[in-house]
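Good morning C.,

I know you're traveling, so I'll keep this short. The sequence:
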Amino acid sequence: MSDRRVFRYDRGRLARNLAGLLPLAGFPVVLHLTGLADPVLYGLFGVAAATLVAGVLYSAARFKLVIEDAGLDVRGRLHHRRVAFTDLREVRVRRGRDKAARFMGPPPFRELVLRTDDRRLVVSSLPLGEEHFEAVCALIAERLPDGVDLG
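The tokens, ready to paste straight into the viewer:
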């Protein structure tokens, strides 16, 4: 098998995230039209918008998922994790997140949960997009050790 597949942040998702920040640009206009124009508020909205745009771009630039014969590497916003396929004990696909406070996408999105003896890795369809998520699931299913099924 000796092929290496690299997956990056989905461009369509990036565009939707950035478009979702556009209403933030409308607040200063509304403040101006209502007569509540204040340079401090403009500054606050500017800083908030710049911070949110930078966060979205940083997340998209940093995300990378690499699948190789021996395992997979996932680089997220803050962490880098490597999981060998021989260490996997359970692999399943679930709908949505297990933590409602972290819910951040249009339902139904899916997550691939990979468990080893001592840790768990969750790969979401949100940064990958549905098409690439399906490809990731298929590639992982091909490489699973005996006795472990994609549930």
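Safe travels,
E.
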